[in-house]
Specification:
Number of domains: 2
Radius of gyration: 23 Å
Structural class: alpha/beta
Largest sheet: 5 strands, mixed
Number of strands: 18
CATH topology of the largest domain: D-Maltodextrin-Binding Protein, domain 2
Low-confidence stretches: 1-33
Strand order of the largest sheet: 2-1-3-17-6
Strand content: 15-25%
Length: 415
């Protein structure tokens, strides 16, 4: 997100002419929305189309007689929703699905229409963390529908016990003994954060909404930056540790080479099919750093639906977004797509509590933090992690390595 976006006035988010305010499901629609055809486009993942069409048809039946609807699904990867939207803000979907880390960029660009009349209803229906993720400075901007977009530990119970998976040392020892592997996308800043978040060293997005602050390179205290570097070099030096992308993890599980790895609920179905009754999932382990065990942290993640600030039918767009994310449809998502609900009632169902991956991401969330970082965070993390995974081939002093990481993370837009 660029500094230019954040110079926009926050009041500009709603300055789209004479827009009609949103209404709750129980309120009457205006005469304007009763007349003519209501055309809406919904951006969603292609794999969700069958499920989404069922939800949309139910919406049409509920409001039959109040309007004539033409609702179109358009394939759009959630990972790039913000980028595609901001490339042509006037051509975005009326309703769109996205992960919470894209919200600030949409707000800054005035691209997303805040939730209005049913705010308290949405807040009370969903877990507090999901509501926080969908909000900015006290304003609710989107409708949460999952609380599972984080990561945790998968493990094969045929090899690893509940005691083994408590520590990284225990996992690697068993993997080495059995000539198996532990897998992690180590050079992704999303996962690399897990080694820093629990150290007590400050990190986050600055007040300007663009730059980061970071104290991971502190040279004194109970845990120093160099302690973390040493710990990471020790972990990655294990012959059992494999730094690779998520797809590589699943490939190695399928081949029988990998017995543990860090990933998310999107792989739960595949893991279950391969490991069967030996499929285990739990919070991330601790790791040895400065002579103590540090609990690995994580970025927590939530998915939500937003409404375009440029929708021609904002009332109906909000009603449809609320419908697609209500308790019933979050339950359908769990049953059909194994997605963990943010709705309190849906998440408390017996069926949800029986899924190890969803329970693991909930367990890990107590050690998690919302992902709120500036763009300069990602590349320095990749460069740092690649050096560590290669064993620091140039022999750089540990303080120099961690100083370079922090400098890259905290660099301003102008630098």
């Amino acid at each position: 997100m660029t500094g230019v976006l954040f110079t926009l006035s926050m009041t500009g988010c709603g300055s789209t002419g004479t827009k009609t305010n949103t209404i709750s499901e129980t309120e009457a629609v205006t005469e304007e929305s009763k007349s003519g055809k209501i055309e809406l486009t919904v951006w969603a993942e292609q794999d969700n189309f069958t499920m989404m069409n069922t939800m949309i048809e139910a919406f049409k039946q509920k409001y039959a007689g109040e309007a004539e609807f033409e609702i179109t699904l358009k394939a759009q990867s959630e990972a790039s929703t913000k980028d595609i939207m901001l490339a042509d803000i006037h051509q975005s979907g009326d309703i769109f699905s996205f992960p919470d880390d894209q919200l600030l960029g949409m707000i800054a660009a005035g691209a997303i229409d805040p939730v209005a009349d049913n705010v308290e209803e949405i807040k009370s229906a969903n877990v507090a963390e999901a509501v926080e993720a969908a909000s900015y400075k006290g304003t609710l901007y989107a409708y949460p529908y999952t609380a599972d977009n984080g990561y945790f530990l998968y493990y094969d119970k045929d090899y690893l016990s509940e005691e083994d998976v408590k520590t990284m040392d225990g996992i690697l020892a068993v993997a080495e003994e059995n000539e198996k592997t532990f897998s992690m996308e180590f050079n992704s800043g999303w996962y690399l954060y897990s080694f820093f978040g629990g150290t007590g060293l400050a990190f986050g997005l600055s007040e300007d909404g663009v730059t980061n602050y970071c104290e991971w390179n502190v040279a004194d205290g109970a845990i120093k930056g160099t302690d973390i570097v040493e710990a990471l070099l020790n972990i990655t030096a294990s012959p059992a540790f494999v730094a690779q992308a998520d797809s590589g993890f699943m490939s190695d599980v399928y081949d029988g080479n990998c017995i543990a790895g860090i990933s998310g609920v999107w792989n739960a179905k595949g893991i279950k099919e391969i490991w069967g009754d030996d499929y285990g999932a739990c919070k991330l382990p601790t790791y040895t750093c400065a002579g103590q065990q540090i609990q690995m942290s994580s970025f927590t993640g939530y998915k939500m639906m937003g409404v375009s600030a440029y929708s021609e039918h904002p009332e109906w767009a909000h009603k449809l977004a609320a419908w697609l994310t209500n308790e019933e449809n979050q339950t359908i998502r769990f049953v059909e797509r194994n997605q963990g609900p943010s709705n309190i009632n849906a998440a408390a169902s017996e069926e949800v509590t029986k899924v190890p991956a969803i329970q693991a991401v909930i367990e890990q969330s107590q050690y998690g933090t919302l992902q709120r970082v500036g763009n300069h965070y990602w590349d320095p993390c990749t460069e740092f992690a690649d050096i560590i995974a290669a064993g620091n081939p140039d022999g750089k002093p540990y303080q120099e390595l961690i100083d370079e990481l922090v400098f890259g993370i905290t660099t301003s837009v102008s630098q």
